[in-house]
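lol forgot to send this yesterday, sorry. struct tokens for the thing we talked abt
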């Protein structure tokens, strides 16, 4: 198994036992929960209190980090056309401080980010947090539900392949194309407010 500075996983509808077993196989000893709301009505074993206790039984530490690294910002200025703006969120001092905490923890433990979505490219843990970590030179591996660990660089190539379909690869530089791919995917999967914001322009419904 290749070495990564940090890992990530989406719990989706997994049983608690399977989730913990996957973490143990990957050598994880600390979980950083980046859900803005660490609760689940459908899967209560992933609620913060229950998950903390279950992980502790296996010697895995738990830290809730959704306040700084969550995908549902409270600041209405961090939404564009009612969709959470990951690029703006990545510039917040609070977000950067959260990354610093993650990096410090990763120096001591094998840390795994967790959120709800099964597919990394459907989740801010990949499109926002892992992207920012990779920009700082860290290697991130995404634990998929078949147990394999996909390097973030490979996940990024999947994203680029989706976005580049039909695009003129010669008209845009690689860096610009990747940035556009992140931006486009985020517009599809990022948290969306149901109520228009005061500064929104009129939209067709």
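and heres what i got for the seq, position by position
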């Amino acid at each position: 198994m290749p070495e990564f500075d940090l890992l990530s996983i989406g719990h989706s509808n997994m049983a608690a036992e399977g989730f913990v077993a996957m973490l143990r196989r990957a050598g994880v000893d600390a979980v950083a929960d980046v859900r803005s709301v660490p609760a689940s009505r459908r899967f209560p074993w992933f609620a913060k209190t229950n998950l903390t206790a279950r992980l502790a039984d296996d010697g895995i530490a738990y830290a809730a980090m959704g306040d700084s690294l969550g995908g549902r910002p409270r600041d209405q200025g961090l939404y564009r056309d009612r969709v959470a703006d990951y690029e703006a969120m990545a510039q917040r001092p609070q977000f950067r401080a959260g990354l610093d905490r993650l990096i410090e923890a990763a120096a001591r433990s094998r840390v795994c980010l967790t959120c709800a979505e099964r597919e990394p490219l459907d989740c801010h843990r990949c499109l926002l947090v892992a992207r920012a970590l990779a920009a700082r030179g860290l290697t991130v591996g995404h634990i998929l539900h078949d147990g394999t660990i996909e390097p973030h660089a490979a996940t990024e190539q999947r994203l680029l392949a989706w976005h580049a379909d039909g695009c003129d690869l010669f008209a845009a530089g690689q860096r610009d194309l990747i940035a556009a791919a992140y931006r486009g995917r985020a517009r599809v999967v990022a948290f969306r407010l149901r109520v228009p914001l005061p500064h929104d322009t009129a939209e067709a419904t």
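The beta strands are 6-10, 30-33, 61-64, 79-80, 83-84, 111-115, 140-143, 149-151. anyway ping me if u want another try
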